[in-house]
Amino acid sequence: MRISRRLTAAASAALFALMASTAMAEGEKIVFGTEGAYPPFNNLEADGTLTGFDVDIAKALCEEMKAECTFVTQEWDGAIPALIAKKFDAFIASMSITEERKQKVDFTNKYYNTPPAIAVPKDSSITEATEAALDGKLLGAQSSTTHSNYAEAHMKGAELKLYPTADEYKLDLANGRIDAAIDDVVVLSEWLKTEDGACCKLLGTLPIDPVINGEGAGIAVRKGDDALREKLNKAIDGIRASGKYKEINEKYFPFDVYGS
Predict the structure, then answer these.
(1) What is the CATH number of the domain that holds 163?
(2) What angle, 0 to 180 degrees and rounded to 10, lies between the N-to-C axes of helices 226-242 and 53-65?
(3) In angstroms, rounded to a whole number, what is the distance separating the alpha carbons of residues 233 and 185?
(4) In this predicted model, what pLDDT tens digit does every residue of 204-246 receive, in sequence order?
């Protein structure tokens, strides 16, 4: 009888420890970094709230993981150094998964994939989104992005002007200070629907360069943080299966942003 009671007590203690461990795992605290200057994917509103597809996806992932999440904004150029320095646990801001970046950080599986595109003023003489058509033209792009890398590799005849944020190249394009701009097709398309973007038009999408554009946009985590990366991957699969991803997708886009 004593042995039985001891076994029961031991089993109860083991069960309690397991439940406590699970509760701790489900209550995990995660700090996400995002840029907050790349609508419709992420944007810092005037009242200080963060909105956008990236932000809503991150919130859905946190709900799926039963994790407590907070968000901080981070300028694009310093995102990877800030992640490595542990200013946040993961960075979600439409960052393309590329071999170059994978030398410094690890990535989850993609959570969306869209091609680059070119926008020009409505009265532009440029008629095609090709290297030849942009030869000798002033082309704007956000610095340290796959889009600026794409322009350097495939638009060599153009003069490339780099900007810290997308908002700055959009302002110069609207005011005629540059001839064209390169960015994600969704970012450009959504901007063109606004009053500020009424100046311009989408010239066309560009062929994806797998080396430069990578496998799609993923969530960056620190090198070796396999536990968080795997949890996020599982959560991405979870929201895809549950329909939550589709719900968020339809809030922002009239097409499947996940890609093939």
Answers:
(1) 3.40.190.10
(2) 100
(3) 25
(4) 999 999 999 999 999 999 999 999 999 999 999 999 999 999 9
